[in-house]
Structures are given as C-alpha cells and as structure tokens.
Amino acid sequence: MQQPLAYRMRPTKIEEIVGQKDLVGPGKIINRMVKAKMLSSMILYGPPGTGKTSIASAIAGSTKYAFRMLNAATDTKKDLQIVAEEAKMSGTVVLLLDEIHRLDKTKQDFLLPLLENGAIILIGATTENPYININPAIRSRTQIFEVHPLSPDDIEQALHRALHDTKKGLGNYQVQIDPPAIKFLATATNGDLRSSLNALELAVKSTEKDKDGNIHITQAIIEECLQRKALNADKNGDAHYDVISAFQKSIRGSDTDAALHYASRLIESGDLVSLVRRLLVIAYEDIGLASPAACERTVLAVNAAKQLGLPEARIPLANSIIELCLSPKSNSAMMAVDSALSDVRSGNYGDVPLHLKDAHYKGAAKLGRGVEYKYPHDFPNDWVKQQYLPDKLKNAQYYKPKSNGRIETAFKEQYQKLRQSSGHK
C-alpha cells in the first residue's frame, strides 16, 4: 500500500522538523531534552497538520528510542499493554497517543505508573485545550506545549524538500511547478502542512506528462486539487495584502458591507489565519478604548473561530466584524504607546526616581531607595500626589484621550482630573 506523501515525509530527527522553532530550535526546550536524552512526557496541542506527530517521530528518531503510535479513542487497553511489555523488554518507548483528550479512566490508570517510572515517554497530541479537556492526573505528569500553524515560508520549504527527495518524496518525477502555484499551496491550507503535501502529491500523480516526460503544475491544477480558488493571490502576492488592507480600512471607516465583502474573500480562499490575526489587530488598534468590551468579544469570537474551523468559523467572525464596524473608534492607546516607544528608542529617558526603586533588599534604605514612597492605599480615595516619571520626562504626556465613546470619554475625564491634581496643565 502506498503511504501518503505527508506520512512518508515525516522527519526522523529533530533537525528535519519544519516550523515550531520556539520548541525545537537550537537551545529551545524540546531540542535540549533530545540533546541531553532527558525526555519527559508532554502534551502537544494545536490545529491539525502543524507537526505534532512529526515532533514525536523526530524525538524518537533522534534519541533512537522505539516509537509507537496509538489513538486514545480507538485503541484499547490491550494495545497499551503491548507497548508496556515492549518497554519492559527493550527499554524506553516513545508513545504518541493521538486524541489524548479522549483517554478514558481505565487506560489512564494503566498509563500513570508507566509515566512515573519512565518506561513510557508519552507524547499526547490533541487539538483541544489540555487545560480544559485533559484529566488533571495526566496533565500534572506532563509538560504542555502549544504548536502553532506553520507559516507559508515553513510550508514552502517543506514542499520544495518533498519535490527533491528521491527516497521518500517526489524527486523521481520531473516536476515543473509554477512559483504562483507553490505559493498558493503554501498559503491556502492555513498552516496545515499535511494538506499541502497531500494536495501536491495528488497534483503530481494526476497530471499528464508532456512529450519530454515533464509534469507541469500550474496554479489552476493546485486550485483543483485543493478545491479552493486563489481569490487573494497573484504572481507577487500583492492582491492578498490588498484584500487584508481593504478589510481593515473598511472596518476603520465603519463600512459594514465592505468589511464583510473582504472578509468573505479571505474566507472563500481558506485564509482563516490572516483573517483572525487582522481582526485582533483591528479591534485593539482602531476601536481600542472607545469600546473595550468589543475588543474582548473579538477575542472570544476569534477563539471560537479557531476551535470551529471553516466553514463554521465565519459565524462568530461575522458577529465581531459587524460589531467593530458599528462601534465608536479610537486609536489613542496605540498612539500613546508608540509615543512612549519613540522616546525610549531615541534614548530620551532618565533614571527611575529614588522613591520608586526596589527597596525589598537589605541596605536599600541606606541608598535612599523607596524611602519617600507614598503608598496610595494609605490615602483618601487610594491616591496621593507624587512623581512617577523620571525627572527629565516628568511633564511628558503620551496618552491623548478621545471622546468617541462613552467608555473613553469617562477615561478622558478621569485622566485629565488626575493630571490636574498632579500639577500638570
């Protein structure tokens, strides 16, 4: 039986893993575990196709431990016993347990002592939040790592590797793939490498060779194999960014229908990653303090969309898009922090005032640190006039409040009242 390309291309050592550099890159936690051969059981959680199985396979390959794969939902306690017997006979076994959130109590009770004594290094894989959906007994015996959707650059790197690998990949085919086709393949699967690899294999094996034996893969062929249209992609990728830009500007300009139009173009192309990321930016950049509750609800909508996936993700996102369009707008928070950053980056900052410096250690008082600090809670209304900024910036004002919503209007009144009480004009 011919195994799928995504299966064949799984890494056999840690250096071959694509993406997840915050976990497997040089000096990072999983890389260190492998290097020291001090593995601990772990749970990897994140969307499908982001490398959970690849990480487990690479850990086993790099440490030369036996590697076994089971599914918590479909495999039985007897299957676990077989792995346990193998560990007893030949030493440590790395066990990838897929869908670990569906592990029942019987299997869990069997596993716990094996995790305690290190006979089995458990790598649980799940798309569910382990802090909510995994039993505390298992959770307390594992380290939890989140894996993220791969970037288009990560996926493109893996696709090129598969095209040139003559042993496990497609290197024995004479493939000519157009640059827009591979770029679309790298972006249209929302960071799911498995889907990209399997679509590439389908494209190569289902396309007729020309008279010279070459297989020419166009963007149209990739669109057919993925069943997605490249609505937002052009040769240089400009159209993709144009749509994202138009999406944000439509919300900023309070045009609900335009915002839904551009969001639909992103949804139809399958680009959920760009859509939810941009929506979060918009909420805090363009609505911000004018409606903090709208920002919070956007976060909830984005989290719901990620859990639902497309096509259902469109529903919470539409709720959020409409609310943001019709909310009052304010960029005052972004402008405030950018103004403060400008001072810091230009070297325009002074020494922390003595009364604000750390005073918890012995001898701090002799240095005058914290001596004259006034604890606000000891004063009426839990406030007292004192200087917080360095001397050279004591009159700086970064926040320029707006009055475009009830909430920020209240913030503005309080901010101005406090500045006046502090002696500022």
From TrEMBL:
Query: Which PANTHER family has this protein been placed in?
Result: ATPASE WRNIP1, WERNER HELICASE-INTERACTING PROTEIN 1 FAMILY MEMBER
The AAA+ ATPase domain covers 38-150
| GO MF assignments | ATP binding; ATP hydrolysis activity; DNA binding; enzyme activator activity; single-stranded DNA helicase activity
Record's signal peptide? none
* Keywords, alphabetical: ATP-binding, Nucleotide-binding
Q: Which GO terms describe its biological process?
A: DNA synthesis involved in DNA repair; DNA-templated DNA replication
Family, per entry = Belongs to the AAA ATPase family. RarA/MGS1/WRNIP1 subfamily.
Q: What is this protein called?
A: Replication-associated recombination protein A
Quick check: keyword Secreted in the entry?
A: no
Q: Does the keyword ATP-binding apply?
A: yes
Family matches, as SUPFAM superfamilies: P-loop containing nucleoside triphosphate hydrolases (SSF52540), post-AAA+ oligomerization domain-like (SSF48019)
Q: Which organism is it from?
A: Lentilactobacillus kisonensis DSM 19906 = JCM 15041
